[in-house]
Prior knowledge:
Layout: E1 3-9, E2 13-20, E3 25-32, E4 36-37, E5 43-45, H1 47-59, E6 68-75, E7 81-84, E8 87-88, E9 92-93, H2 101-113, H3 118-122, H4 131-141, E10 151-153, H5 156-163, E11 169-171, H6 172-176, E12 181-182, E13 187-188, H7 190-196, E14 205-207, E15 212-216, H8 220-225, E16 232-235, H9 239-248, E17 254-259, E18 263-270, E19 282-286, E20 290-297, H10 301-311, H11 317-331, E21 339-341, E22 359-361, H12 369-385, E23 397-400, H13 407-417, E24 421-423, H14 429-442, E25 458-459, H15 463-487
Helix pairs in contact: 2-4, 2-7, 4-7, 9-14, 10-12, 11-12, 12-13, 12-15, 13-15
Amino acid sequence: MPVLLALDLGTTSAKAALIDLEGCTLAGASAGYPTRHTPDGGAEQNPGDWISAARTAIAGVLPADAQIAALCLTGQMQDLILERVHGPAHPAVLYTDLRAGAEVGEIRAALAADGQDWDALAGNLQDASSCAAMFRRLARTDPDATMALRGIVFGPAGHLAYVLGAGLHCDLTTASTTGLLDSRTRDWSPAIARAAGIDESLLPHLTREVGEIVGRTGDSARELLGLPAGIPIVLAPGDAGAAALGITGIGTGQDHASLGTSGWIASIRPAPQHTTLDGASHRLALGGGAELRISALLAAGAAAAWARDAYLAGASADAADELLTERAQRHGRGPTGLLVLPSLGGERFPVRDEHLRGAVLGLHASTTPADLYAATLEGVALALSHALVPADAGRVLPVVGGGADSLPWRQILADVTGRPVLRADGTDATLLGAALAGAETLGLGHRIAPLSAQGGDVVVPDPSAASAYAALRARHRQLYDVVAQLAG
């Protein structure tokens, strides 16, 4: 049976998986690579390390007799890689690099002089992580690196496709993170490219579908990756898009939540005809006319861990869950009577404010440490709920991340959102999404199901608790503005 070789070139490692057309992961392996950090806020990687790690990971999953239907590529987004014929002109500048702050202002001013607003044009707030600003900074600090280029790509997946001989390509999701895409036309913006000092002919071809065959492996693939020639190379969405596909599938109208160290609601929606800037959410294009909206909290699991230390004397997550279960047996499900903003140091959603700090409102003489811990988890759930469409109440909400292991927290999330909450194992969601994109692109008859369709534990909301939380939601959202005003 033919199999799909999915490869995720992430921030710290290359992960490979062999996935059959039934959706079973037959093997998985990974290999890490280093990041070079500089005192001035720089973050760089050697693209050669990506290739070496990819080869190691692939060797860990590939049997000698495998019939590979496609090599499906995804990975970290918003990196700047300057390509020449014989290799990159400079180390890859990562999305976490913060050295281009001055250039952000210069690009913004250049566009404003032409009557255009960069944030509105790109559809997202722009900062020092913009690839446009990164390029302008390099042109000033290392002009030799930006000369005599063959082209530019914006992530390891695009770089690997290039070195395999497929040419210069970029998926729409990754393109949305660069600050160079016009969110209205879904094409590279000539105005932004000019302001950044980028020759438009250097920008890669944009893939328009959820996945696209960008070429086939050639003779170099055996030396580079240990793969035979002739395998279709499918460029899947960047890692955020691929993970969403792996969790909820390709269809629109799908949401999922993450309760990792940070937290988010990711929603796949039809792309609007007229885009409007939403400063608190990231809006990324997906192929096939869809949009991925990500509304991210800086602290979710981190807030829970802090609360266990601060309120429960460093209790383990399991011990804290037992306290929550006992509390629910005594008091029932529903609001704690406290309102918590779980912001430990700045916030991204529902407001973007680097100075915002957390808050607890409603303390009483009878408030217990367990109440404070429950209210912290409740605060995270309320913050996430501001990203959901109320009309979707009743639609199952898959949740991934370490916090999803907590049954009491899933119960709180279900009651706060009014939606059944499904615990999904998101460990390999990005690889599964890349394989799904590959199978769809090749038109293969497959039964690869997203994680949300594979079953799991479902917690349903308590109607009276959900009604009580719905009445609190507006007050919780208002508290962000009040706290920001008092702290300002």
